[in-house]
Structure formats: structure tokens, C-alpha cells
Amino acid sequence: MSTILVTGGTGTLGRLVTERLRADGHEVRVLARHAQPYAVDLIRGGSGLEAAVAGVDTVVHCASTPRGGDERAAAHLIEAARRAGVAHLVYISIVGVDAVPVGYYKAKHAVERQIQESGLNWTILRTTQFHDLLVRVFETMGRLPVLLLPAGVSDQPIAVAEVADRLAALAAGGPAGRVADMGGPEAWTFEDLARAWLRATGRRRPVMTVPVPGRSFRALRAGGHLTPGNAVGKGTFEEHLAGRYGGGAAAR
């Protein structure tokens, strides 16, 4: 079995990828800012990164932050991987990074280009948003007396466990380039998603949709972040809500 480094290996996705790879018999190293013995801040780089990649066959790059710095982190990782002779770099990206002009998406797209031009053998998987992200958004919005949602926007959430399974399989295989996108089983309007969350949590809030101007929301309304032709996910948002909140969300 191979030696695999998972960046962001303590995060929502990276932790599950690590578990699956270890269950399959791989030696897995976890790189994260506070995860010994490979506690590394990728944005800053440093000597710890050299030790983390030494002797590694494959890197699964899950570390990412919307607060900025992904491109610098990727540059440090790519440089270290080249020096160490890493045979395969796997990257998790987002559906629509080349279509939706949001800052975080632009950064993810830039990292894709860095990897493609790195000289390393690579695999890139784009997926739609995780169920957990939508729940966090609604929990934050639910602190207000009214849920204000962008009009005309849908989402196609996917179970993070399914993405972890796919990433682990890709890491165990050979470099495959840009593989098929991976989307959740169906696209829902934000209003329907919010109402499902309200039912599951037993909360009562008025839901209002408002038109939001700008290029980013125009791209979202056009479905630039969706992949209906790749709706391969099985777990639904309602199933996720039922498992998280211990009840059953009624049919929408």
C-alpha cells in the first residue's frame, strides 16, 4: 500500500478521507496547523512541510479557507511535492469555480491552474456544496426573525461522506486529470432548502426571497454552480437533516 498525505486532514472532508484510506490499509499522514507530528500552516510554509511530504506517494489536498491564502498554500505544497518526487496530487475543487465570479471560487480555480501547470501528475475533482455548509448558513440566518434568501437561486447539496469515498478511491488510483464532476441527487431552490431546515429543527420563521443584483448572483441564478448531468450523489438533504437533528423532515 502507498503512503498518502492528506492536507486539512482534521477538517470535515479530510478527516473522512483519512479514515477511508487507513481502513483500506494505506499509511496516511495528516497535515493540519495543529495536528502533530505534521503541524504545518501551508500558507506560511516552512521546514515542517518538507518532512511531511518526504517519502509520500500521493498528496490529497483538502486544506482550504474562504478567508484567503489558498493560492499561496498551494504554491508551497506544489514546490515541496516536486522536490520530494510526489507521484500524484489530488485536489478537491467546487463545481462552478470557472463560472461564478465569487472571490473564493476564483481562488479555487486559480489553484486548479497551479496544479495543472505544476509538472506533477494530478487529479482534480469538483463537487457541489456539502449538506453541512447549507446547515451552517441556515443556522446563522436563523438567528434573525426572518430568513432572507436570494431569489431564483438553487443548490445541489451532496453528502460529504460520498465525496470522501470518491476522493479516497481517486487517491488510491493513478493520476486521472480532471474527472467528472460530482453533484448531489437533486437541485432545490434555496427557499425549499430553508423550509426543509425549518421543519427539521422545529423552528418557525417567515421566509422571504429578494432579488440580488450583481454578476455573482446572476451566475448563480443561471446555475453555474450546479451539475445536473452529474447528479450521482445518493444522500438527500432531508436525510442529512433527519440524521443531524434526530427527527424526520416532512416532505416539502
Automatic annotation (TrEMBL):
Residue ranges of every copy of the NAD(P)-binding domain listed in the record: 8-132
Annotated InterPro entries: Ergot_Alk_Oxidoreductase, NAD(P)-bd_dom, NAD(P)-bd_dom_sf
A family per Pfam: NAD_binding_10
PANTHER family xrefs: PRESTALK A DIFFERENTIATION PROTEIN A, PTHR43162
Name of the featured protein: NAD(P)H-binding protein
Taxonomic placement: Bacteria, Bacillati, Actinomycetota, Actinomycetes, Kitasatosporales
